[in-house]
Design brief:
- The chain has 110 residues and is α+β, with helices and mostly antiparallel strands.
- The chain is 26% helix and 39% strand.
- The protein has three helices and six strands.
- Strand 5 and strand 6 form a beta hairpin.
Length: 110
């Protein structure tokens, strides 16, 4: 993570519950778009933390003025796919790859 944290094209948000990190959200910037990645601590999964983290991420992206958030979700990760789609992310055409490509236009980008 050392090199990633020194990258000016990356932002990292850490969510805490009672002072304990529960999730982190990473944004890799590409112009006005940002690729998003969310990690939820294993002991916090299934408790709505991912939904809260993604809502915070979308809000943050809008405040930053980014046009769109982009997610690459592994085809086997159905829970993550449902999470992103429930937050308004839309799948692009099926490319036959191992990942689904999803995109959401931020409030500022609309």
């Amino acid at each position: 993570y050392g090199l990633a944290l020194c990258n000016r094209g990356m932002r990292l948000l850490i969510l805490r519950r009672n002072g304990i990190p529960t999730a982190h959200i990473r944004f890799n910037l590409n112009g006005l778009d940002a690729e998003i990645s969310i990690y939820v601590s294993p002991d916090m999964r299934g408790k709505g933390i991912g939904k809260h983290a993604l809502a915070a991420a979308c809000n943050f992206a809008g405040r930053m003025g980014w046009r769109a958030l982009i997610a690459e979700v592994h085809r086997e990760n159905q829970a993550s796919l449902r999470l992103f789609e429930s937050a308004g992310f839309v799948r692009s055409e099926d490319t036959g790859r191992d990942f689904h490509h999803l995109e959401r236009i931020t409030a500022r980008g609309e």
